[in-house]
Design goal:
Chain lengths: ~300, ~300
């Protein structure tokens, strides 16, 4: 997997590098593969910022995304920057990644990392041999206050689904809702719903309503079929009185709970075209986590 | 009026904040130890941080006529680094028992992990042994369950509920905290915790007994004048002055005064500013003439 990942990332980043940056990358990869001490490894990860932009996206096409999915199910480099990709190549250049020395070097890199380095390191974790060795570190990433870092841990990677225990997984999902990071981008939400997650989500909904604040629309993704009567009541309240975005998401939530009949009742009463559209789609079976992604395309003025 | 802001992170604030707070009537603060926005990697960082809370920051506050007390503890997020937490607990007693430390805090849950619980229990035991109040940080996510569990753990560790201040309450948790017999503190943040308007409603509903208002102002978007502003709104909305004084001054003094570390008579006296003083040869001034005895308006 490591060499397939390396090859894909190299093809993604190379078009975004100037010729001297390409030269630097070649030299750095060779140096790391030959063996470097931890200090030098960290310094090379930092120096990458002098050779690639942190705002330029690698912009993979559909074929590249399909290839990424082949390399590792759940890995999606769609939002990777050239700089993150460059750093990922440096990490993957190590030949001792499966050994203790490699794990220690990666841990050192985390310890001295700045924001951009953290983003790259968390994003590449799932591509390393035996990723479970870094589960504590990934949990640390979930505790961050930096949104970019949190999303690198949580989104577009199979890491949380595969290696988080239930406490870390539920916290990761609820934190997405809490900070309004795109929960639908967390790989495997639909595979790992639970009564406990539903309970946490419903508590959060109550808290928001007590504070007279809108409920985050992706919260309704967390219930699935585990919300019970309390979940149904909370969803119906959202459909009755929520904003366009909230009603649309609650429609998906009700469909996910298998409440098609109730949903048809709301369809008869709903006048807003955007919400009706999502209601119809939900009734048509489009209510998986990616369907919540479509809600983010509702213009803010209409939401 | 005079105010006691019993939860504010002044190391993250400027001298402009100190001036504005003093002008608005803030007479005393408690600065609990917390995390710094990102995780520390060595115990030395904790040593220097705790040292600054009991040293330079206290001096800095005094230069603006504000009495600075602090709480020492290992926060919940960093409790998840258990190797580091063990080292922190080695040095924590050297700071937690210093003069002016009014509580162990802020401690509690973040993600409600077993590591967090172990750190919470260790620190509750330490507080009980040393007869110190405890300042609880309740979690952002899964708050209600976090508070219920904190109260249970406190009960199991033999914590006197009158020594327990549970912070960051909201409408959904206030009953749990008050019913347990603990102090219920509320952080006034305009966006994520409580707004002043909501605080007014809570005081109208529950009265002033065992309720405490604080700002928790830190390095994030927050307001070091939350306490005086909320007091003004409470008065404007018809809450009587005695109740307002309880929730913005008296209750905090009562709770944290149980540490025996607050000289109430000194606090009641009109503060005196003397900016000619130095702390290890350092001044808060940058060439300005020092204010001496200019008095702080009430």
């Amino acid at each position: 997997m490591t060499s397939a990942a390396r090859s894909l990332i190299a093809r993604l980043v190379e078009p975004h590098l100037a010729s001297d940056a390409l030269g630097w990358l070649g030299g750095a990869v060779e140096e790391i593969a030959g063996g470097v001490d931890d200090g030098r490894f960290c310094a090379l990860l930092s120096t990458a910022s002098r050779h690639a932009g942190g705002t330029v996206k690698v912009d993979p096409d559909a074929a590249a995304l399909a290839e990424a999915e082949q390399v590792l199910e759940g890995w999606n480099p769609e939002r990777w920057t050239a700089l993150s990709a460059l750093r990922a190549l440096l990490v993957l250049a190590r030949e001792d990644l499966a050994r203790e020395s490699g794990a220690r070097a990666v841990e050192e890199a985390f310890r001295y990392a700045d924001e951009g380095e953290l983003v790259a390191l968390y994003a590449v974790l799932a591509l390393l041999p035996e990723p479970g060795r870094f589960a504590w570190r990934a949990g640390e990433g979930c505790r961050t206050n930096m949104r970019s870092v949190f999303e690198a841990v949580a989104c577009d990677t199979p890491y949380p689904l595969r290696y988080f225990d239930d406490v870390a997984w539920n916290q990761c999902l609820i934190k997405c809702v809490f900070v309004e990071a795109p929960l639908w981008r967390v790989y495997g939400v639909d595979e790992r719903l639970s009564p406990e997650l539903a309970r946490m989500a419903l508590d959060l909904a109550d808290e928001r309503r007590s504070a007279a604040r809108p409920v985050q629309h992706e919260l309704w993704m967390c219930l699935g079929s585990h919300g019970g009567e309390r979940g149904r009541a909370s969803l119906e309240r959202e459909l009755a009185e929520g904003p366009v975005l909230g009603r649309s998401a609650a429609a998906l939530g009700l469909a996910r709970a298998g409440e098609a009949a109730k949903l048809r009742g709301f369809l008869d009463r709903e006048r807003d075209e955007v919400v009706r559209d999502h209601l119809l789609r939900a009734l048509d079976g489009a209510h998986d986590q990616r369907s919540f992604g479509a809600l983010s395309r509702i213009p803010a003025a209409r939401a | 009026m005079r105010f006691f802001d019993p939860h504010i992170h002044m190391t993250s604030r400027t001298t402009d904040d100190y001036e504005a707070m003093a002008a608005a009537g803030v007479r005393a603060v408690v600065e609990p130890a917390f995390w710094l926005g990102q995780p520390r990697t060595t115990v030395g960082s904790f040593v220097d941080y705790y040292s600054s809370l009991t040293g330079w920051e206290r001096f800095r506050a005094a230069q603006f006529g504000i009495a600075h007390f602090c709480a020492i503890g290992l926060n919940s997020k960093e409790a998840n680094n258990e190797a580091l937490a063990r080292e922190v607990f080695e040095i924590l007693p050297r700071f937690a028992l210093k003069q002016g430390v009014v509580a162990v805090g802020e401690i509690g849950y973040d993600e409600i992990t077993p590591a967090e619980e172990r750190a919470l229990e260790w620190q509750m035991d330490f507080a009980v042994e040393n007869d110190m109040p405890i300042m609880i940080h309740s979690p952002h996510r899964d708050k209600k369950r976090g508070i219920v569990r904190t109260l249970e753990v406190a009960k199991n560790r033999g914590v006197d509920m009158q020594m327990l201040v549970v912070d960051h309450n909201n409408e959904e948790t206030v009953d749990n905290t008050l019913d347990a017999g603990a102090w219920a503190a509320f952080t006034i943040y305009p966006h994520t915790k409580m707004g002043s308007e909501r605080m007014v409603e809570i005081v109208k509903r529950y009265g002033g007994e065992r309720i405490i208002v604080d700002s928790s102002a830190d390095w994030g978007v927050s307001d070091p004048l939350s306490v005086p502003k909320t007091a003004a709104l409470m008065l404007e909305r018809g809450i009587d002055a005695k109740t307002v004084e309880l929730v913005t001054w008296g209750n905090a003094l009562d709770a944290y005064g149980r540490s025996g570390q607050i000289d109430v008579a000194a606090l009641e006296a009109s503060p005196v500013v003397d900016q000619t003083q130095l702390f290890a040869d350092n001044s808060v001034l940058r060439g300005q003439p020092p204010r001496v005895d200019s008095g702080v308006p009430n």
